[in-house]
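hiii, so i know i said id send this last week but things got crazy w the move. better late than never?? heres the sequnce for the chain we talked about at the cafe, plus the structure i predicted for it. fair warning i was half asleep when i ran it
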Amino acid sequence: MEIRSLTRTEAERRGALLTVERYDVDIDLTGLTDGPEVRCVSTVTFGCREPGAETFVDCVAQVRSATLNGSPLTPTGDGRIPLHGLAEHNVLRVESVQADTATGAGVHKATDPADGEVYVWTSFEPDEARFVWACFDQPDLKAPHAFTVTAPTAWTVTSNAQDPRVEELAGARRWTFPDTPPLSVYNTVVNAGPFHEVRREADGYDLGLYARRSLAAVLDRDADEIFTLTRQGLAFFGEAFAMPFPQAKYDQVFMPEFGGAMENYGCVTWSDGFLRRATPTPAESELLAKVLLHEMAHMWFGNIVTMRWWDDLWLNEAFAEFACHWAAERATRYTDAWAGHLAGDKLRAYLSDQGPVSHPIHQPIHDVAQAASIFDNITYPKGASVLQQLMTYVGEERFRAGMTSYFARHAWGSATLQDLIDALSEASGRDLDTWRTAWLGTAGPDRFTVERDGDTVTLEAAGAPRPQVLAVGAYRRNGEALERAALVRVEVTQARTALTGLPPEADTDLLLINDDDLTFATTRPDPATRDALFRSAAQLPTAISRGAAVATVWDMLTTGEATAAEAGRCITAVLAAETSDAVIEPYLTLAANIAELWAPHDERAGLTAAVAAACRRLAADSGRRQVALRGLARTATAPEDLAWLREQAGDDVDLRWRALVREAELGGDVSAEAAVLLADDPDPDAWVRALTVRAALPDPAAKAEVWQRVAVDRAVPVNSVGQVAAAFWRPGQDALLAPYAQSYLESVPQLHRGGMIPAMVYASHLFPPHAIDAAYVEKAQQASHEAAPVVRNTLLERSDAVRRMLRSRTRTA
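okay and structure toks below
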């Protein structure tokens, strides 16, 4: 029987009917040392406002026994257990077993290939706790949770609450955790294994870091940085929201085979891929900082105050994404965080917001399956940019006051969009209903251009614009550089807005719309200055101004208004002039992507060579050498570049792997060298690097082996699928890849298995960017109709991007 997804109507009825008093969950992990089973006993104490009514509890795990107030219950086989004849006060007890801990949802067993040690993690967003134990799996039914965990003697167990009582048993230990504050089920967690642990006291907090033992040296290397960021973030958010984090203990657990990071209250779970085996690049360090602050912001947005239903997912995710950039710039050394956002995630959001799955930031969500499909570029980077615009629109001081009021009113409960708008309206003195409808209820970006008639300058919107504040910068040439002559901020309320305060036309070489990147809008130069923007983007004086120009160039490429050659030349020129470490790596990736994915076949080699040349120039700067050599490892084609790269790699194991991938793609016989490097590499996951080399080979047997392990067996950790898939789908290997493009289409109905994160990863990274044509994209779009919502949206978004790439490949400079 198909597992049912909770609908909004069902959740509202159950939320109105029940008050959950507490969860007592007894978890037995001892079966994982030599088997797959997690055994649980979930005892739920809850009240019913209508005695005699009926409802259901969620439980997808195998039910061994279930009783309600002592009477036996029978599951229906669709992930639910009906509850009939509810009393005013009820006690539900369900014994369950989950044996699918390899590829299932909710709980995962990972075995470290380095030493055979076993680790287990849980992750429940949006509704995956039900795969492990019985619960009312909806966000507004918050309650204290008390976990008792029995685990092997050598293991450490982490959970939300602090100071567990640990008892020695025969061959095991029992960890009894005190009650959590009232939490949604999806914000709870249990992680366990023979961890390496590092602890530190900071500003009255007890901070803990955990990782598998084979990564102890890497965790120790990064501990100071992580503790510093954690201390800075807790201080910033506590002051900004006038509410310090209320628990003394704050743990962060880095787990194998985990995708991304999850904001469990007081115990954040990370993919241990964030513990870089090589010395992190500036962009990788900034990413760790922003993810750390994003998950920390969820302690307030999501845990302390939780959305009532999934249509307000942006209350969690957009605010956390906005807040991580805000905190990074104000409280840490990552003062160019917004520039990094503009160079990376925001560009992806502009593309998504003009594609087939664009949607309002706030929209009706029918069921949780649909909710899983909006953990996307609209909710995250667009949502973050819109909130940055809102703070600009109302002023930061009043924005902070509204947040303070919001948390004071709704702490430990649930809230809606209107609750937030009310708090911000009261604090700012502005009626935000129009802003709300325009920004949160309407899909797609605004588009602005300027019209100049002599010295009269008018900002023009394509259609009715949203209410917003944006800036236009006027630049004049000073030698080889452009310098800002004026910056005009305007509040847009209509399609045409006069710009006053700009210098005369004769004293202006370039007008830059959305200078300072204050809003989420696409822009276009007027036809007379189009070519000047492409030529002079690199001469702008700041990372943000250059980023605003690059955003325009990128959007024109994706909409067919610029060629890959034009965009590639512009971005490689920006790379040569860039002063911000935060954007060098994103721009190198963007330039390489344009050459590889967007350029016509007969222009690809030339654009790739230009990126390789830019990498060699950047490598002369010691601070950028690592990033530049990684870029060269992706783009080197000429024998002299490959030889120079090998020479520069020396003992750098990470760079040697990257070079081998490139040489394999170009047909080099690297199997013996890869075997030697695998034997020498201390990384417990080095086998994935060796598989990546195999993936790049233009060899039928290698392609078949890699597809089997990645797509069929799902033997590659989910956080490494993108790395292997990128090496698999190489340009120029169309004949070898064509069968796997068809295999992808055949796999679509099953891509959702394993939960939300694997569904998104496999649907996106296995989609072929090569060996296909427009007819294939049409077939993929048709196949999406039979897929789960999260797969459908991911597939449609990816197919739209590839369709644009195919169109660009037919345009020449």
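btw The two ends are 55 Å apart (CA to CA). thought thatd interest u
miss u guys!!
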